[in-house]
Structure prediction request, 364 residues.
Amino acid sequence: MFSDTHFHFHMLEENLQPRVLREMAVRDCFFGLDIGTHCDDLISRQDGIDKAIEKCAGIVSDDGAASDSCIASDDGALSVAGIASDGNLSGEKLKSKIKSFIRFSAGIWPAPEAIRDRKNQIEILEKMIRGAGVAGDESCRSGAGIASDEDSRSGAGAAGDGGGENSTYKKVVAIGECGLDHHWNVSGVDGRAESDFDDAMFLGEREMFEAQLDMAKRMKLPVVVHSRDAFEGTMECIKNAGYDNGIIHCFSYGIDEARAFLDRGWYLAFGGGVTYTKKSKMDAMKELLRFVPEERLLLETDAPYLAPVPFRGNPNNPLLIEHTYRFISEARNINMEELCETVDKNISRLFFKTTLKDIEFDIA
Ligand SMILES: [Zn+2]
Prediction:
């Protein structure tokens, strides 16, 4: 339950990391995608998650009871979110289960310094991805975590290339996030001003985005697109690249723009921002959330950013996505379980080119 197609795990507080992974496993999370923003961050992100997995498994005692340090939540989000813990999930079983649902994306965010150095950085990115491996057909069956004990033991990689669970878990399943950002805010996380961008920079930004679309096309991978205040430019780039496969992440446009992306085959992902839409725009937001067809809808946190209400302003983490699921299920007038199922089906189709039914069939 509660898949999250976009988070920056290494930016979560270090002591929170193992607890988040453990609780995602306890919730039978189907899929969580760790997103890259720098050409060379893949290995360090993977190492960071490996460490958090070890830590998480290591602090669970042999009899299966979670030790206090793992679960006792005296400091914030976890306890407030009221997450149940499953004392039976421990050790190797826990590690294997986490590796069955965590996946990695790699890409270059359009920061001015990356744009200036784009030729070099695109090369590095491709090398990093080839080094980790590109998820292909073998990832279909090993798939994202299928939530039964049996499955998590056979785990990711069971039907893969014979290289064991690690090799499949670390293969790259998407390119991104990459795209265009024309939102200037010197006091924001990006620290960018309009003066950072001249014509050459604008063109360079597009070139860097198109190079990543091309790479995704060659590797047959979906793209995680960042598009802020740049609808037209984004459209032009994807038309130039002739590749419509992936997610418009943190969708921030209106129904017309949604239709334009949907018509080309894109999935739209919504984050915690939808929960704190201004009152005057709330009706339009809910209309948009109802407008997106069931088979193209995804949910994400963009953690540690954009925590949903009632955690707005705090650091976000993938467990808080439950609040976004609740909000969107209410807007669409369906129950939350139904929404979880819808999102997981979409994830299987987009990332594993298969359906949940196929995965279950293969395992059986
Ligand atoms: Zn992001």
